[in-house]
Amino acid sequence: MADKVIALACAAGMSTSLLVSKMQKAAAENGKDYEIFAKSTADIDNMLAGTGSPKPDVLLLGPQVAFMKGEVAKKAEIAGVPMDVIKMQDYGMMRGDKVLAAAENLMN
């Protein structure tokens, strides 16, 4: 079982799949055992409840759904899950190491 679970949410859950791969690679290179996955924003309620996938230790929104931050932040707070929006530059450049570091900062 993974030490930490990092969930990413975007419009369809597909555009973040490459970023997830890069984050997994960065985690492995640093000896971290994280489960990292991406889903659609439609799955946020289930993710925060741990239904259908492990409850995340942190939730990151893709920049294309940043407008949802206020709504999601309320739900995440109730669930006890820190969340934030991925920086557009890191997302656009697919900087898995930077996004992983941001997730780790939120978990600490």
Write the layout of secondary structure elements.
Blueprint: E1 4-10, H1 17-29, E2 34-40, H2 44-49, E3 58-61, H3 69-79, E4 83-85, H4 88-92, H5 96-107
Parallel strand pairs: 1-2, 1-3, 3-4
Helix pairs in contact: 1-5
- SS field, number of helical segments: 5
Q: Can you tell me the residue ranges where pLDDT is under 50 for at least 5 consecutive residues?
A: none
How do the strands of the widest beta sheet line up side by side?
2-1-3-4
**Rg, Å, rounded:** 12 Å
The portion of residues forming beta strands comes to 15-25%
The CATH architecture would be 3-Layer(aba) Sandwich
Q: What percent of the residues sit in helical stretches (DSSP H or I)?
A: 40-55%
Any idea of the CATH topology? Rossmann fold
H/E element order: EHEHEHEHH
Main sheet properties = 4 strands, parallel
Q: What gap, in angstroms, lies between the N and C termini? A: 20 Å
**CATH superfamily annotation:** Response regulator
Q: How many distinct folded domains? A: 1
**CATH first level:** Alpha Beta
Shape: globular
Average pLDDT confidence is 94
- The overall strand count is 4
Quickly give the structural class: alpha/beta
EC number: 2.7.1.204
Modified residues (Phosphocysteine): 10
Pfam families: PTS_IIB (PF02302)
GO molecular function: kinase activity; protein-N(PI)-phosphohistidine-sugar phosphotransferase activity
